[in-house]
Fold:
Amino acid sequence: MLFVFLVISLLLFSLSTPAAEQANPRVVETGPSDKLILPPPNATRAVANPASVIPWPKEKTPTAPAGFEVSLFADDLDNPRMIYVLPNGDVLVMESLPQRSPSRIVLLRDSAKSGTPAVRESFLRRLNMAFGMALIGNRFYVANTNAIVVFPYRAGDTQIKRRPEKILDLPAGGHYTRNLLADPAGKKIYVAVGSSSNIDEQRVDEKDPRRAAILQINPDGSGMRVFAS
Structure:
């Protein structure tokens, strides 16, 4: 009976003990921070668990609060990451995915306010893992993962085919999204730059103050400073 009890106890311990601890009994993953002994990087196999996108059933929509309703405006978009509404009501959707460059912007126009865009155009192509968008006057700004670029824009344009002007280099890699926000007066632009990794074990963020920070620049790209870090 004692032998059976010991076998069951050892089995339960092995099931409840992380693989890293079983391989290295010195690993301590819980307790006060000064007592933790974590396994070295890559000691165990990395595992990814991406989300599975399940489309809404036909004729079904999300439940909205009382007094509101939800309707489908546009679908069949390729990994939409950011939406920007131009002054004339055109809706710009940034399609961007790190493993699938280049990015592009899709323009949706619903002039009749019917809830369904009558115009759907590829507004901008050949962007580099882009994310943020901003319009100041007749200049349209895009945040690629490695630079801020500007395009000339005319109200009502459904496509931009002119070449970009690069106004600011950004550190590439890491968390790739770069958001943009212009102040109400159009005098300053704020750029969010992600960290190089989740835990920065190589101290990359420490070496480049632009990472894991919000940068402030003038509309021409000059005067860059770290606004928040």
Summary: The two ends are 62 Å apart (CA to CA). The mean pLDDT is 87. The longest helix spans residues 2-16. The CA atoms of residues 30 and 195 lie 26 Å apart.
